[in-house]
Sequence to fold (84 residues):
Amino acid sequence: MLLRWLYENQGVARFDASYRLFVVLVDQRNYFDSWKLKRAKALMEAKICDYLSSCGDTPGKHVEFEWDGATYSPTADLLVIRNA
Fold:
């Protein structure tokens, strides 16, 4: 599961087991330019608002992952934003 992978592969200096909403950006015309979509504020704002409006009272999924010998169980979700 990608959520688990994202938690387990974060850098040591950035380790945190907090609840998260991961946002993955995908430029379907050029995957190597996907990072540039973070400048598309209107697109990101619309997609995040749509997600928050539709997730209901219990957003996210239970994720269990291991880090440095300990097991963590936060709630997280993944939002993939793609350009047309």
User: Anything to note?
Assistant: Residues 41-54 form the longest helix (14 residues). Residues 26 and 32 are 9 Å apart (CA to CA). The chain has a mean pLDDT of 92.
